[in-house]
Amino acid sequence: MILETTVIIIYSIALLLIFLYALAQLNLLFNYLSSKRTKIECPKLDLSNPDEVPYITIQLPVYNEMYVMERLLDNIAKIEYPREKLEIQVLDDSTDETVESTRKHVEKIQATGLDIKHITRTNRTGFKAGALKEGLKISKGEIVAIFDSDFLPKKDWLKKTVPYFKDEAIGVVQTRWGHINRNYSILTRIQAFALDAHFTLEQTGRNCKGHFINFNGTAGLWRKQCIIDAGNWEGDTLTEDLDLSYRAQLKNWKFKYLEDVETPAELPIVISAARSQQFRWNKGGAENFRKMLGRVLSSQNISPKTKVHGILHLLNSTMFLNVLIVGVFSIPMLYIKNEYAHLKPYFYVMSFFVISSVIFFICYWFMYKNIYGGGIKNFIKYIGMFFVFFSIAMGFSLHNSIAVLEGHLGKKSEFVRTPKFNISKYKDNWKNNKYMKKTVSIHVIFEGLLMLYFGFGMYSAFIVGNQGGDFGLFPFHLMLFVGFGYVFFKSIASKV
User: How far apart are CA 23 and CA 360, in angstroms?
Assistant: First the structure.
């Protein structure tokens, strides 16, 4: 009975944590819908008045970006802003032949009269955070815009974002990510779905009520004074953007999120690239939970509700660990439930997962409707999309849980970049990309085993108990089977 009791307790705790996270998402939905009904007018700089035009530095942190570098530089060169108040820093940490090709392209753009500099370092100390910090030392701008190499801001991007720095308490202006290759494959559609939820429901839902949000590493602007006041960029976590965001907001700097300003970007098209990105984001989230929890709890400047949302925000990635625990323990729970009739009242806790799933379904529908529109046809499409999204998200739970555990345990690892492809059509060839990993992670083998394990879970639904089976967990096990199967076979196929 000790083993069974332990399984029930761990399973129940994980379910309750997921439920609390779902309730927080529901609260963000209410906030989001409320923000749509009340438009707040913000003071804005008049960029037609030369005296109000701030000096802008655009930073482009890059590392071995053979396939997108020219596209990035040509796009940034088109940005509209008074040239006497604009400088561009190409912060190039590359270690391959792109250093020379980038230098030549920068010189070509310099010849047009644009103030653009090619800045290199002898080592990658601090990785992206280190590059940004080095560039900041010599930057001229009082406002710093940052773009990763796969982002393509529209030429009027600065005109739409810079005016919000009229309020001197504003430290960051963040824009919504768009997706130039959203419809490339199931993988890109799933990634777009998840990011759209973050950039509508979560960012708006938190920001409109004054809760902490995060600069998303790119497609946003920082007030230089805010960066310095918050302690500057630090490279001790894999998500330096989340780290600096919390340090700045704990210093009472305000963040402004602009849902209506979209900045297009490229999504990873190969599962190995998505895996490396997911690993970095989830491990970095756990690292920041370790780093920031005490500061958030002890802060006298923020309300209890903002603290709760902040803690759950920092625990975002840890939900993958809870999902994995619930999934793995659900099969033993199925047998325990049908073996010990006197314990059946305790199994009402299982309904928390159903309630949580319904909450997520409702929340994400509003996000989906906002992008694709309402109506019965779109709702039917959404049901299918939600099932696929939920399944594949759970299929990533082992991979992401390992990242989360490493983050919580303080295990350090190198900043692994996400390879870019500059590919928008499925028939385009990506297999010759020189930056792709050539080996299959050992984690993939365990994902294949988990696929079989949840296949056994579906089989178990037919044989447990003496009442003709128990199918309450069958849909859950089906989604886990599909999710782990997709991740396993995609990971193997991408190496063939």
Answer: 9
